[in-house]
Amino acid sequence: MAINQINRLFKNLLLQSHKTVQARSLFTSPLNLRDVVDRKEMLRSMPAIDEGTHGEKSIDIDSSITKRDIFPTIDTPNKLFNGIPFKDLPIFNIRVTRNNTILCLSDAKGTPKLIRSCGVEGFKNTKKGTNIAAQATAITAGTKALDQGYKIVRVRVRGLGPGRMAAIKGLQMSGLDIVSITDSTRVSWTGPRPRKQRKL
Fold first, then answer.
1. Mitochondrion: present as a keyword of the record (predicted)?
2. What secondary structure does DSSP assign to 74-132, as a single string?
3. For residues 118 and 131, is the Cβ–Cβ distance under 8 A?
4. Are the beta carbons of 191 and 178 closer than 8 angstroms?
5. Is pLDDT at 145 greater than 90 in this prediction?
6. pLDDT grade, residue 4 (50/70/90)?
7. Cα 179 to Cα 15: distance, rounded to the nearest angstrom
8. CB-based contacts of 158: which residues, under 8 Å, 6+ apart?
9. What is the pLDDT of residues 160-198, one digit of tens each?
10. Strand-strand pairing, 91-96 and 152-158
11. Is there a contact between 105 and 150 (Cβ–Cβ < 8 Å)?
């Protein structure tokens, strides 16, 4: 009703000033505003939740290694790598959890020389547990190890988490020569006693 009255007023004004100004039609249709009533439709229209950047699912470390070269032999501790016996090579210990990845470079006796973690690298909260954080931390740790003069290293991985392979790849990308990868994840063969059965 009110729209029709406004429309008539404008038409009268336009008719009176028709001699000087050319008349144009005036559209007063309401805007089609979308009112979301259905919750499912609203959730569908929202952008997807960002779960961080997805990295590689699996990588091939070195396809040239044959099956018989994988496991150590009796002569492995005395085997020379660039003039250094295997038993005297520095060790990169990688401690992997769901929430963080910690890298520690130590000499053959176990004295720590360099410690780096995803939190120190600048990743906070849940981002510390991602494979991208582990790879970035490993690249930084590897570069610092090269600056200290370590070129050939052994790698020892402990724990389960998204940063296992990413940390090894980061060390490889930094330019370190990785001689061996050892998985020293602790396994409990006799776990804790289970809960008693519920009585219903």
1. no
2. TTGGG-EETTEEGGGS-EEEEEE-SS-EEEEEE-TT--EEEEEEHHHHT--GGGGGSHH
3. no
4. no
5. yes
6. confident
7. 92
8. 93, 94, 95, 96, 183, 184, 185, 186
9. 988 889 999 999 999 999 989 999 999 989 888 989 999
10. parallel
11. yes
The residue ranges of every structural domain in the chain are: 1-28, 70-183
DSSP conformation class of 163: T
| Lowest pLDDT segment from 49-53, 58-62, 111-115, 162-166 | 58-62
What pLDDT does 200 receive? 81
Q: Which two tokens stand for residue 23?
A: 């008349």
Write the single-letter amino acid at 179: V
Task: Please give the structure tokens belonging to residue 50.
Answer: 């960002």
Distance CA 190, CA 197 (A): 19
**Tokens representing 110?**
């176990």
Structure tokens at 154: 């052994």
3-state secondary structure of 178: strand
| Beta pairing, strands 84-85 & 91-96 | unpaired
Distance CA 83, CA 60 (A): 28
Q: What is this structure's pTM?
A: 0.62
Element (H, E) at 179: strand 177-183
Neighbours of 124 (CB within 10 A): 9
Q: How many CB atoms sit inside 10 A of residue 100's CB?
A: 19
Q: Which CATH superfamily is domain 70-183 in?
A: Ribosomal protein S11/S14 (3.30.420.80)
